[in-house]
Amino acid sequence: MKKRSYKLSLPRWALAQRESWYAELAARGLRVQKAGAMLTRFAPAPPARLRYRFEVGSDEGGLPAGQKEFYEECGWQYVLNDRPLHLFCAPEQTDAPDLHTDPAALADSLKTLRGSILSQALGTALWALLMFAQLTYLGRYTLELVLADAAAPLVWAILAVTLFRLGWGVYSMLALMRTRRMLRAGAMPRHGPGWRRAALAHRAACALLGAVYAVCLAVSLLELARYEKTPLPETGAGLPLLTLAEVEGTGYRRAAEAAPNVRDDVNQLVQTWTPGAPLGLSAWEAGYADGTQDTVYLVQRYCRLSGAGGAKAFGRGLARRLWLLEPEEYTVLKETPDTLVLANYEDGPGFHQTLLLVVDGPDVLFLHYWGGGARSADVGAAAQARFAEYTAAARGR
C-alpha cells in the first residue's frame, strides 16, 4: 500500500489554480485529504478525472444549513474544510452542475476569504513582533543566560518572519483584489495548467522562509554548542567587573559551600549577546553571610555598544526594567554629554544595597549588590574605579 504524500501548498487566494492542481493530481492517482498553510496531504487512489470547486463559508467557517446536503444531492462530494473554504469534487463525466455560474456572486463571497487572510497575516505579524520585542534588550531579563548567545540569530529570524508574513499578506490581498475585479467584470476564473505559475511563486517564497529558519537555527545550535561558562576568578583584575570575594572579603560562603545540595551555577562569568553590542559580559554570584543564612549576591552586566549615540538611553531604559525603579528614585552622581552615573544606595541594620548604572561613551555597566559586608557607597565607588580602569586600558588612554 502506498503511503500518503505531502506537497507544498498553493496560496489560499488562488482558488482556480488550487482546483486545477487537485484535478491534475487526481488524474495521477493522488486525492487531496488535508490542506494546510505550508503543506497539503494527498492519499493514493485510483486515477480519476475529477472537477474540484471551492465554496466560501461564513466568517465562522461553516456552510449555511442544508447547503452541503444539497450539493451532495447534485452530485458533488464533500472533500475537506479549509476554513473558511470548503472543497467539493465531482467526476467530469457526470452532469453535476457547476457550483459557480454567477461571477458577481462569487466575487461577493470572496469578502470572507479576504478577511480571513488579513486577520491571519496581522495576527502572525503581531505575535512575531511581540516575540521580537521580548527577546530584545528590554526583555532580556526573562531569558536564561545560557541562551544569551544562541538567542541572537533567533531574534533576527523572528524579524525576518514578521516581514515575510506582512509582505505575503499584502501580496495575497492584492492578488485577491485582482481576482474580485475580474469577477465583477463578468469573467470567470480559468482552470488549466496556469496553476504552475502560482505554485512556482508560492514555493519559492516557502523555500526562502525555510532557508531563513534553517540558517538561524544552525547558527543558534553552533553558538549553543560552543557556549562555555567560565568560573569567576577571585578578583576581577582585567575585567570591568568586581567579584563578591572583593566586596565581601572572607565574610561570606558560596551557596554550594553553605549547603552541598545547592548548585553553584550562579557563580559564573558568562559572555552575553546584546543588540548593537559587540562585547557583553555578565557575572552572577550568590552566597550566605558567615554564620548566618542571610543571602548576599552581586549581579553585574557590562556591554560595549557599537556607538556611543544611544548608550545613555539604552542604559536608562534597561535600568528601569531590570531594577523596577522610576528615574526620580535614582541619584544622578554625574552627567555630561558622553557620561552618566546613576545610583541608588540603601544602608540598614545588617544589610546594604547598591544599584549602579555607569555610562562612558559606548561602555555601559549595571550593578546590583545586596549584602552585609560592605557599605553601598563603597561598592559603588569600587565598581566605578574598576570600570574606569578597564575602559581606559581598552581605549589606550
TrEMBL record:
<protein>
    <submittedName>
        <fullName>DUF2812 domain-containing protein</fullName>
    </submittedName>
</protein>
<keyword id="KW-0472">Membrane</keyword>
<keyword id="KW-1133">Transmembrane helix</keyword>
<feature type="transmembrane region" description="Helical">
    <location>
        <begin position="117"/>
        <end position="135"/>
    </location>
</feature>
<feature type="transmembrane region" description="Helical">
    <location>
        <begin position="198"/>
        <end position="222"/>
    </location>
</feature>
<dbReference type="InterPro" id="IPR021359">
    <property type="entry name" value="DUF2812"/>
</dbReference>
<feature type="transmembrane region" description="Helical">
    <location>
        <begin position="155"/>
        <end position="177"/>
    </location>
</feature>
<dbReference type="Pfam" id="PF11193">
    <property type="entry name" value="DUF2812"/>
</dbReference>
<keyword id="KW-0812">Transmembrane</keyword>
